[in-house]
User: Fold this.
Amino acid sequence: MTRKLSRLALWVIVLFPFGFILTLSFGQRWPYPRLFPQSWTLSNWIEIGQSGAGITSSFWLSLSLSLSVAIIATTLSFWGSRQIAFHPQKQVLLRFAYFPYVFAPVILAACLQYFFVRSGLYGQLAGVLIAQLCITIPYGLLFFSSFWNPKRKAMEESVYTLGGNVWQAYRMVLIPTARPTILTCFFQLFLISWFEYGLTQLIGVGKVDTLTLRVFQYVNESNIFLAALASVLLIMPPIVLLWLNKRYIFRLNTNKDLL
Amino acid sequence: MSYRMLNQWVGPIIFIALSVVPLLLGIGYALLYSLGLTGIINNGFTLAHWHTLLQDASFWETIGFSLVVALSTMVISIALALGLVLREPTRFQRPIPSFLMYMPLAIPAIVMAFFIFQMFAKGGWLSRIAFQLKIIPELQSFPDLINDNLGIGIIVSHILMAVPFLVLFFTNIYQNEDIDAYRKLAFTMGTSRKMSLWYVQLPMLLRPAQPTLFLYFLFVMGSYEIPLLLGSQSKQMIAVLTIQKMQRYNLADIPQAYAISVAYTVVVILLLYIMVWVSQKNRSYDP
Amino acid sequence: MNYLPVYILKGTLILTLTGLLGLSCSRNASDAPQVDPRNMPWEEVKQSANGQTVDLMMWMGDPQINTYMSQFVKPALQQQFGINLNIINGQGNTIVQTMLAEIQGGQKNSAIDLMWINGETFYQLRQINALWGPWTEKIPNAQYINFANPFIGIDFQQPVDGYECPWGNVQMALIYDSVKVDSVPASPSELLNYVKANPGTFTIDNQFTGLTFLKSLLINFAGGPKALDGPFDEDKYQESAAMLWSYLQQMKPYLWKEGKTYPEGVAPMHQMFATGELHFTMSNNDAEVDNKIRQGLFPSTARAYVWETGTIQNTHYMGITQNAKDKAAAMVAVNFLVSPEAQYEKMNPTVWGDGTILDLNQLPTEWQRKFARIPGRVHAPNRKDIQERALQELAPEYMIRLAKDFRTHMIN
Assistant:
């Protein structure tokens, strides 16, 4: 009984913020001590649709940017972390991975801005992509560093013993067993890129107008109903993406057979 | 270069190019800026900015407060996440519960700050419920849960963001390291449930988790949006202070912002060394 | 179903690659030397602007303003002058940071042509020499602007000198809830009494608006309007600031959160006013109260007023960057922004409600009539009435000092 109750509580805690924010986005006038807004309206949605002409194109830009960052960074860091995990200089290299995070993120953006201006990548999609890779790849490397243990090494070795090549080792053994880890990492990196504001604003000079750049401003403004609406616009795409790919992502159990 | 050499070094080189190089450039630039050696608002070498900063008591308070907030967040979040995972380790391997844990990851810090503000403010949703239930007579008697000097609002927001992530993360490790097998092994050898928890499951979970946990600690310590909206100006967090110096009104404060970030980097590197040292010390007890 | 992710992946990769290639080719396309548009007849300036893109950086936090820009200004510039207006998001501090990076990085082609700026940004941009000028007298519609008006021609006690063109004019107003506040405090001493009687319901924000309010208090303690005009005066500051801090110290225990912290900007202050946690909020835009009631944020009982001691009147401007790609196009765009047509539309309370910077007496009679017929304000004060209570912005050093000393005296 307690277990059932605690499960229910978990559901409520997780889903509540989404419901609350979605509800607010349709609200108007919310004086104390009412629990819900006084009236309901679609006008917030209509207003933002009219004023932010180009939300759709921003959405596609964000989607392709974030997917690119997530794909490139996950691939490189999965592969790179394996190289590092079995590298003679493993400890030293792994310590380097912390480097981008020893800097306060806001200052990192200001310093990097200078170098991106210098290199001419400033104000461009390519610059933003590279800047985002700089913060996602080290994260991925650290994320995967716990994955490579002696057991994994032994599994890989056995592929070679059985006559397999590197490609087969990755395709048949390493990637399948790493799937849950890879997917968690992929989703994390996608989100880091999706919500990235500082670097994207400063290095893209607002010209690489991702969805986050477009609606982020509203979250900090005084109109809570528009803020809620902007939040919905930010949150929903990743969740929908997750839901659409659920069959692909949540086949976690099957890995047991492999282990 | 042989194929083997290539194979061995290409990965590290790409990674150094993308993570070490930008940082070294950045830190070099910040250091030069803080010493007055670069930047159009500077007029040549000076130690004045460092002098002001290191003598400023509120700077040290800010560093201390940031550490405390990050530490409290991590301790509470790790405890909660471990509680959820260890109670039933296979639970979050199942599709629906794991989807449920994935969902909150999609909430960015700024939205979380907004949500907590709407919940915990004196005129927020909790206060409205308390008023309707006649627990408080008026709005003003609701306790200060945000913009308070203890950082309650900041810590709560970060915990809500960290727990789902840590649950998924620990679940992955549990599966990866096949901890269940060791747990069963411990049982067959007559170990008590408590002993197995403390000496088998926890160490096996936490040791590989260390790098990511430390990274998350840094993420909380350097966070900006949440303390900006939910914090108090008499107890600031580091990023808020830096931006204040960087972007508020007085251009002459900008070199100080760079000095703060160099000082912050030194603190973080020290912490990193302590962490590495501790983990190596622990490792040396390994059989 | 399983193939969907694969398609998304492929699509993304192709998109990214084409994007990268396209961008790297289009770079530096406009490196050709520019002719100074100030030396060209206006007809030629217009011709050379045709087909150009103007990158305008501005604060985009208000949907009404965004709608005005994207639905009215942008199409008009495209149709009338063939100018493609590209609006990008960024507030004053982002503008300054971007300009600093460009100048320090030796960027010759600025990513931004035009910027919406306020006095404090103007001051900072002039310090780093990021503004191009003088140019404002060269645009035809400058004839309708009375630069001799100190509220327009002087920005933070600094003559604009043709480096920025006025775009809109607003005055600070206090906003209160008429249900909760029976009689509004008309002066600082009445405010102190109110706050003491109603603890926790008043505060000022920690940013621009709060500082603007502090400035009007400072002027009041210094002896009233014009007392602090001119360049920064240390002695006068010390004297009046001492009175200001002792006044605020008396108020501090009764402020929101006992004055230990202050809202980070007007946004949280507005939100707390909307729920009733605060009885007062304030705005640098005297028309904002109507706007916020219409959006369903403020209660319909909210009202705005300017107290007897007066509040700061502030003009916002358009500035062209020193390294703008196409200054001619930027000038044509600004000329349209200050045209009677665009100013009239902007002043309409249902559109934006921003005060015009045009001197109505100098306009053709037909436009004078149109401006006179703009629908009135509902709960915001009448502009003519508050004009008498308008205070001029102070030299920027006053704000820098107030911001610093506020931390020392009121927070730490």
In short: The longest helix of chain A spans residues 55-85. DSSP finds 13 helices and two strands in chain A. Residues 63 and 237 of chain A are 9 Å apart (CA to CA).
